Amino acid sequence: MTAVLPAPLVFGGRAVRTLWSNRKARAGLLLLGFFVVVAAFAPLIAPHSPSATTFTPYQGPSGHNWFGTTGSGQDVFSQVVYGARVSLLVSLGAGACATLVAVVLGLVAGYRPGPVDEATSFVTSLVLVIPGLPLMIILAAYIPSRSVWTVVLVVAFTSWATGARVIRSQAATLRERDFITAAAFSGERLGRMIFREILPNMTSLVASSFFAAANAAVLAEASLEFLGLGNPSTVSWGTILYYAQQQNALLTGQWVLVFAPGVAIALLGVSFALVNFGVDALSNPRLREV
Amino acid sequence: MAILQADGVNVAYQAYRSPRVHAVRDVDLSLEQGQFAGLVGESGCGKSTLGYALTRMLHPPARLESGRISFDGQDIARLQGERLRRSRRNGFALVLQSGMNALNPVRTVQRHFGDILAAHATGRRPSRAAVQEHGARLLDQVGLDADTLRRYPHELSGGMRQRVVVALALALDPRLIVFDEPTTALDVIVQHAVMQTIRDLQREQGFTGLLISHDLGVVLEATDRVLVMYAGRIVEDAPARDLLSGPHHPYTEALLRCYADPRAEEVELGGIPGSPPDLSRPPAGCPFAPRCGLAEPLCREVEPELTPLGRGLAACHVRAREEGVPSAR
Amino acid sequence: MPAEPVPAEPAPAEPAHSGVPELRVEDVVRTFRGRDRQLVRAVDGVSFSIPPGTAVGLVGASGSGKSTLARLVTGSLRPSAGAVRFGEVEVHRLRAGALRGYHRRVQMIFQDPYSALNPLHTVGYTLARPARNHLGMSAGQADARVAELLEVVGLVPAEQFAAKLPHQLSGGQRQRVVIARALASDPELVVADEPVSMLDVSLRAGILRLLARLRAERGLSLLYITHDLLSARVVTDQILVLNGGRVVERGPTAQVLRHPRDAYTVRLLDAVANPFAAVPPDDTQEAAHA
């Protein structure tokens, strides 16, 4: 009855096991794990430095350069490998930021009806109406510093609203459930109510929001980089596409330059989508494979 | 002639990665034209599953595993698609528990009638006037007035919605209507009124009715014949009056003791200790034996069959022996 | 200080139990803004009292105001006018912290066994919370209390049940857990809102007998809310019949049910599914009374 391990560890372990038991989610976890490994061990996997301009430019795939070289003589394969780092960082980072904001605002709005709820819902609706990509472009264009963190913040800023609305709805529904009233009768204080009674019942929704936001972030980040609104000197899949376009890669027959980062972006997005299939079981103990 | 005849019906639930639950076990049932029968039992006894099986409304993970179901002499258990749909036209209808869920919130009541009449029309689409006239007539039968036709479901009270659902069920002049807990979701006073309407309708119009309910009191008040279900099997089948004055099966007896008249001088409320068996592991012998005061060793080994006792049937070894009738094959 | 209105109902027949105060509801009104912005009087001038150790029934159909009254008594709702007093405590004026203290003494049993328990918490956790919050018990003391409570409600072996999750229990078992939770803080008054309505009839007698026994053993006061007159007859000493937010009839339960004076009471009696009234009584059924 009393916990032996610290709660977050028990929870995390159980969450992974629950996701693992769903076939699609398992595939997603494996795919995501693959990218994580590539990103973590990039220096070991990539044969060359991604920014070293030591090769003959505009070469197709060969023994030296598996994916060929860029117009500046850089090894594309190494770029794709190192690019995983930025893409993962931005997608998970932006996804986490957006979800955190969504959860905080959604809970605050959903838990207590009244002026706070109305104000927050109004702001959320407002942000939802504004088209995401154009807003991102404008923000990125006007922010003076160009770095990965800019991208993370811009993406997070434009994608919290959907999650906030959904979480608010569920918090409002949960608030009416008898067991929440019963928890109040049991003497629980606000902190425990939120973190031990309400949030655990929203795990599926929060996880789902997170993976959806991360998925959107992958594409958003690539889009911004491709449009030249990121930092052109960072190595990411988006910047590979940016330079590929600048250097007319398709005209010079270097389709790998477009294909490789494109497939990588798609696969990372797919991995998030697949994991999302397994999150229903997180909040429903009956669905867990016992 | 029996209008509905079911033989050896077996229904099981098989969900992905879950044990198979044998919800309806080898049930035989026959309903005569014009009868109003009640099927009563507690949670998990299989009565709703049986009701859905009889009207061919089962959805996965429920599966009709075996058995013959004849409606008007025609085997409907194997019908699929268009032929099943057509057999519903002049055949049987189903009234479900939650009227609010059966009605489309964005369509008026009149459109609901229009949809039903059009879906099963043989010739041209019925005209709006025809729908209105027919609809008003049906609504009148259930005690609602004609301008209910213009309303949307959310504008009606729970009781009114359920009456609309009954009227829709009557629209195609069915020979058999199955009511699955038609009043359970309603307020207690409204329940009583709607149930009376249903009973009066059955008497006036003469359709065959099957009322499925967990409430023995409601069933005894409304129906002529009661079938008691326990753990997936029918354990007693008798005229309502006889069941009340002299039930044969120990479960029926125990169930009756759970009811009492609040107006009586002394009120004694009975209960049944224990709980029904787990149908993912159907028990050997009589399923009620663990909770039965009369249980004998035979009861735990051999499952009793329905045998004639009094003016009905009951499946009990002990009672059968008292009457000198065989209770097992 | 405003003059206190005199409660308009007969004096209680039983002597007061020492220690447990009387609950008094004085001329309480509660309005809501209903559909199309109209003001609805859910409770329209109700007064009654619950003498210590007695069981009082509030009966009526839905919309009669009985659930609203229950929430006014537990402090979950504030009256629009009138007062609710538990001994010296002015329930209608309690705020957050004091309300928590009030819940140690006044607990609630909920109607729906399927939503009254948090699906993610074990029975042991759910029962331990009130013991820890209201009684200040340590983890070990709370565990002992949980075992004690499970035995009292007949869920044995206690260790087995304490480790179970709600979806592993039947409806009747869940309701026993709900009752155990209500008793965990050693309350003086329990508000039971339709505690057996969602259970099979064969299970009701057991639960009602449990409630009666607990009341007798612990000198609890009970406010029993239902639309089912049969269970009210079995459980309560006094009864109030509510219609449209007003009390239309009141008195000792057996007397009111056997000799109802108000037409609405008669309608409620007729609505009780009573197999023994359906068919003209035989020799074994009740005889007519003068």
Describe the structure.
The complex is a heterotrimer of chains A (290), B (329) and C (290). Chain A is mostly helical and 290 residues long. Chain A has a single domain (36-51, 64-287), classed as Orthogonal Bundle (MetI-like fold), CATH 1.10.3720. Helix content of chain A is 69%, strand content 0%. In chain A, helix 4 runs parallel beside helix 12 (256-276) and helix 6 packs across helix 7 (148-175). With 329 residues, chain B is of the alpha/beta class. Chain B folds into 2 domains: 2-91 and 172-323, P-loop containing nucleotide triphosphate hydrolases (Rossmann fold, 3-Layer(aba) Sandwich), CATH 3.40.50; 99-171, no CATH class. Chain B has helices at 47-54, 81-89, 99-102, 109-119, 128-141, 158-170, 188-205, 216-222, 240-245, 250-256, 297-301, 317-323; strands at residues 2-13, 21-32, 36-40, 62-71, 74-75, 92-95, 176-180, 208-213, 225-230, 233-239, 307-309, 312-314. In chain B, the strands form 2 sheets. Chain B has an 8-stranded mixed sheet, sandwiched between helices. In chain B, strands 2-1-4-5 form a 4-stranded antiparallel sheet, with helices on one face. The longest helix of chain B is centred in the middle third of the chain and has 18 residues, at 188-205. Chain C is built from 11 helices and 10 strands. Helix content of chain C is 37%, strand content 22%. In chain C, the strands form 2 sheets. In chain C, strands 6-7-8-3-9-10 form a 6-stranded mixed sheet, sandwiched between helices. Chain C has helices at 66-74, 96-105, 123-135, 139-152, 158-162, 171-183, 201-218, 229-235, 253-258, 263-271, 275-278, and strands at residues 23-33, 39-50, 55-59, 81-86, 89-90, 106-109, 189-193, 221-226, 238-243, 246-252. The radius of gyration of chain C is 20 Å and the shape is globular. Chain C has a single domain (23-272), classed as Rossmann fold (3-Layer(aba) Sandwich). Chain C has 290 residues and is of the alpha/beta class. Classes of the chains: A mainly alpha (290), B alpha/beta (329), C alpha/beta (290). The interface between B and C is large, with 37 and 42 residues.
